């Protein structure tokens, strides 16, 4: 079974941000900004990770903090860029 986009995103977030949680502990609807204290620098790390893993790119005008608040919103964004 192929790995779900959400699982890949969680693994990347844990690895890139050096979080002391396992990817499985991150709920799809957790507010990442609040729960894991993600600031603009850490958010940039997530964007770079998404670009590398999914071979997508984000233009400045596409950047919207709300789109990066949960794993669900991030996966929706990735899906919209890979279809």
Question: Could you describe the 3D structure shown?
Answer:
- By secondary structure, the protein is mainly α.
- The protein has one domain: ACP-like (Non-ribosomal Peptide Synthetase Peptidyl Carrier Protein, Chain A).
- It is built from four helices and no strands.
- The model has no long low-confidence stretch (mean pLDDT 93).
Q: Tags for this entry?
A:
mainly alpha; globular; Non-ribosomal Peptide Synthetase Peptidyl Carrier Protein, Chain A; 83 residues
Secondary-structure map:
Layout: H1 5-17, H2 32-35, H3 40-54, H4 71-82
Helix pairs in contact: 1-3, 1-4
Helix content: 40-55%
Following the backbone from N to C, one meets helices and strands in this order, namely HHHH
| Beta-strand segment tally | 0
Shape: globular
**CATH architectural designation:** Orthogonal Bundle
**Terminal residue distance:** 20 Å
Mean pLDDT: 93
Helix/strand-derived class? mainly alpha
| CATH fold field value | Non-ribosomal Peptide Synthetase Peptidyl Carrier Protein, Chain A
Beta-strand content: under 5%
Provide the number of structural domains: 1
CATH top level label: Mainly Alpha
* Largest sheet report: none
Radius of gyration: 12 Å
């Amino acid at each position: 079974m192929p790995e779900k986009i959400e699982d890949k995103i969680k693994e990347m977030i844990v690895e890139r941000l050096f979080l002391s949680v396992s990817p499985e502990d991150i709920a799809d609807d957790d507010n990442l900004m609040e729960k894991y204290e993600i600031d603009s620098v850490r958010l940039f790390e997530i964007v770079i990770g998404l670009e590398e893993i999914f071979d997508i790119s984000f233009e400045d005008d596409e950047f919207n903090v709300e789109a990066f608040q949960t794993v669900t919103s991030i996966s929706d964004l990735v899906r919209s860029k890979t279809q």
